[in-house]
Specification:
The complex is a heterodimer of chains A (344) and B (166). Chain A is an alpha+beta fold. Chain A has two domains: 239 residues, Glutamine synthetase/guanido kinase, catalytic domain (Creatine Kinase, Chain A, domain 2), CATH 3.30.590; 88 residues, no CATH class. Chain B has 166 residues and is mainly alpha-helical. Chain B folds into three domains: 43 residues, no CATH class; 71 residues, no CATH class; 47 residues. In chain B, 49% of the residues lie in helices and 8% in strands. Chain B is elongated and about 65 Å long. The chains are: A alpha+beta (344), B mainly alpha (166). Chains A and B meet through helix 4, strand 6 and strand 7 of A and helix 5 and helix 6 of B.
Chain lengths: 344, 166
């Protein structure tokens, strides 16, 4: 396996990953939902040519024609956050350019012609923006982007106009969720032009206690201002989460540790495991690892499990299509193997 | 104001429905609005309805076919944009022009771009930004009756505009 989740980043006890996405469109071609097939091909060709130049330092990029890809392979890309569910379902000319380490990817003909994306482990929005800007620069050498002096980069949806940038950090917030304080955070962030949403679920019912913090505003502020804003807010949330974790542990260490070890016990021994249950239990184990209660499991290992227990990745690992019931059995098997593997 | 349904919690959602030109406004709390969504509205608001909502168009109102703005490049009309929330191409932004400003203001709180500029047009955009800054200063000078200073700024603007078109 390869990807951002195989490395440990800064603040990794709370922050799972940081992602920057830039939306860009070719100047003289209608946006994807309005363009003709030939236009779609033109965009694919233009994007490919701009990045996959031979002999250049960025030749470690690969182009994937999404129309030629089978549904399971597409779904794996979705589970790894390399493409959006919308792009996976697209019947149109669409493609993906991805770096060999899978940290950088470019979706072609999603809602906008190009969606340049970079994911890093831990809190590293600034480095992710730097990489995205470099890729943006490489595209700009051969492509004229739709840009307006007053509006900035023009996008299909007015919510992205301006910088075209969405910066998001994925946070693991079990203590804030357990204590219910997450509600206050959700409300406060809304007032600051920041969106917080559950990663796999909806609102406060976030599966696995994972939340995504991202900017709402893309016009008016500079890229740096947007990042400063998100970094500051994330820092406060991270601090609160850490304080609460320690407080909860201090209040009743036996109960706290019991919960963590019970979850670990279930994950290490169960024979049937739904994805919902595994997300919940993995959150407990992650908390134990982050707080040094469990010392023989690596956070990278947990990140990898998180990706590989999703339906398409699971079917890829076992090399055949699996019915939902069978998936739960195989999921339990995979988690057991990975966890005991890291114990040895 | 209290919620008009449960009469207990504070109403923080104004729910407007327009059916056959009859406007009904109900004030609800979060909880009742959520319940209401399940029972009487049918499907929850989609992103498109949301868009027509924030642009001041009641989402159930029939579309008026009046003088509509249509983009020549991609054939997307302003009415169509209002329904889908999607802009058809870069030229639409010019065609719809000022009509978009209230929406952008509501979405971003700001309508003047400040971010990164593409390398190729960097100097050109930089000059435009300086010109607009000078224009603001010029207006201020005139307002304060500093006419000499205003004349200098006016000349500066002229020079820069020549530079921009070179």
């Amino acid at each position: 396996m390869k990807g951002w989740y195989l490395e440990k980043g800064p603040e990794s006890d709370v922050v799972i990953s940081s992602r920057i996405r830039l939306a860009r469109n070719f100047k003289d071609v209608p946006f994807p939902f309005k363009m003709k097939r030939e236009d779609g091909k033109k965009i694919l060709m233009g994007a490919k040519k701009a990045i996959l130049k031979e002999g250049k330092e960025n030749s470690d990029f690969e182009f994937i024609d999404l129309q030629q890809l089978n549904p399971i392979k597409k779904q794996i890309l979705v589970e790894k956050h390399l493409i959006s569910p919308n792009l996976a379902e697209s019947q149109f000319e669409s493609g993906l350019i991805v770096s060999s380490d899978e940290k950088v990817s470019v979706m072609i003909n999603e809602e906008d012609h190009l969606r340049i994306q970079c994911i890093f482990p831990g809190m590293q929005l600034n480095s992710a923006l730097e990489i995205c800007s470099n890729i943006d620069g490489v595209f700009e050498e051969s492509i004229d982007f739709a840009f307006d002096e007053n509006y900035g980069y023009l996008t299909c949806c007015p919510t992205n106009i301006g910088t075209g940038m969405r910066a998001s950090a994925m946070l693991h917030l079990p203590a804030l969720t357990m204590t219910g304080y997450i509600k206050n955070i959700l409300e406060a962030c809304g007032k600051l032009g920041i969106t917080v949403r559950g990663l796999y679920g909806e609102n406060t019912e976030a599966l696995g206690n994972m939340f995504q913090i991202s900017n709402q505003v893309t016009l008016g502020q500079t890229e740096e201002e947007i990042l400063t804003n998100i970094n500051n807010i994330a820092k406060q949330v991270i601090d609160q989460e850490r304080i609460l974790r320690n407080e909860l542990h201090k209040q009743n260490p036996f109960r706290f540790e019991d919960r963590i070890y019970r979850s670990l016990g279930l994950l290490s021994n169960s024979r049937i495991m739904s994805s919902e249950e595994s997300f919940r239990l993995l959150s407990d184990v992650r908390l134990g690892v982050d707080m040094g209660i469990i010392s023989n499991i690596d956070i990278k290992n947990l990140n990898e499990i998180l990706i590989s227990i999703q339906p398409a990745s699971l079917q890829e690992t076992f090399g055949r299509p699996l019915e939902p019931d069978e998936r739960d059995i195989k999921r339990a098997e995979l988690i057991r193997n990975r966890l005991t593997g890291s114990n040895s | 104001m209290l919620c008009q349904k449960c009469h207990k919690r504070v109403a923080n959602i104004q729910f407007t429905q327009v059916i056959n030109n009859n406007k009904i406004v109900i004030y609800l709390c979060d909880q009742c609005a959520k319940d209401e969504g399940k029972f009487s509205i049918g499907s929850p608001l989609s992103i498109n309805d949301f868009f027509s909502g924030i642009m001041g168009v009641p989402y159930m109102a029939s579309v008026h076919q009046q003088s509509d703005l249509v983009c020549n490049t991609c054939n997307t009309s302003y009415e169509e944009f209002k329904k889908t929330g999607k802009i058809g191409c870069a030229d639409c932004y010019k065609v719809y022009g000022e009509k978009l400003l209230p929406l952008l203001k509501r979405l971003h709180g700001n309508v003047q771009y400040n971010g990164k500029i593409p390398e190729k047009i960097y100097s050109q955009v930089k000059v435009s930004r300086e010109i607009s800054k000078l224009k603001e200063q010029l207006e201020l000078c005139i307002k304060n009756e500093q006419y000499e200073k205003a004349a200098t700024i006016r000349d500066q603007i002229k020079n820069m505009e020549i530079k921009k078109h070179d």
